[in-house]
Write a structure and sequence with these properties.
single chain; alpha+beta; Jelly Rolls; 2 domains; six-stranded antiparallel sheet; 4 helices; 19 strands; 35% strand
Length: 298
Amino acid sequence: MKRGARVGCCLSWALATCTQTVSLAHAANLAPRDFAYGQPIVSPAAASAYSITLPLTIYQATVRDDLGDLAIFNARGEVVPSFISQARTDAGWSGETAQAREDARGDYVFDLDGHVPVERVDLRLAEANSVIAAHLYSRKDLRDAWKFVARGRFYRIHTPRGDDQSEPLAVPLSRDRYWLARIPNPVSASDLVMIAAWRPSELVFLAQGDPPFLLAYGSASATATRTDLTPFIAAVAVSAATLANAEKLGGVGRLAPAKPPFPWRRCILWLVLVGALAALGYMAARLLAETDRPPPPS
């Protein structure tokens, strides 16, 4: 191996080690009270690892759309290794919003009430024998600009066999909460419903320490660590577990961003700078005064 390659490998190893050390230190400082809510984990039998299919409530009560603000704690209050993967089944949850809200003529806004990983979108029409063409947009936050997602045609046609509905439209995976359907030929907002289809993620964690285990989630400041268990999880007995009813941990206040600390250092630097400028101004004034002073009589 060439010297440059060896140096590169050493640097990569050092970076990975430092990152892992920081992650472990952060995990050691986490506690269940750092999260808004928690759900006890119910395991039917002892196993080396457990998997949980994440319900809709997790997507609704977490702050980060990558589910980075959740962690698994054991009975001693320690964070255990875990990672998130896509569910291995094609069966997903489909849920319809509140009906559409017409934001402007031809613009219909939908709130999914969570950052679910949407893969298919359908617009359902209440009136039979209706056809619409729609451009779909999405955004993560109300302050963001709308991003174009896809366009499609949706219909509901009455036939002797019953109503024939258009198929859901496949879209690039999106975790945006807000969606907009722009329809050139407007319809009544009460006649339009959006259905988002998605596959729930699966949380896998090692049974490290004593049970019971607790899934804690929802925090604007805490960032849970993730451990890549894929290289060896296939050789581990993974048992399916379920979640008990949600309970309050740190409370809803954990979902709000913490107020930034007062910038003492910046204020001190500004004071020093202003003081220095004042001193320079004083010295300049003194020099000008001495320059303008008439010379003493000889």
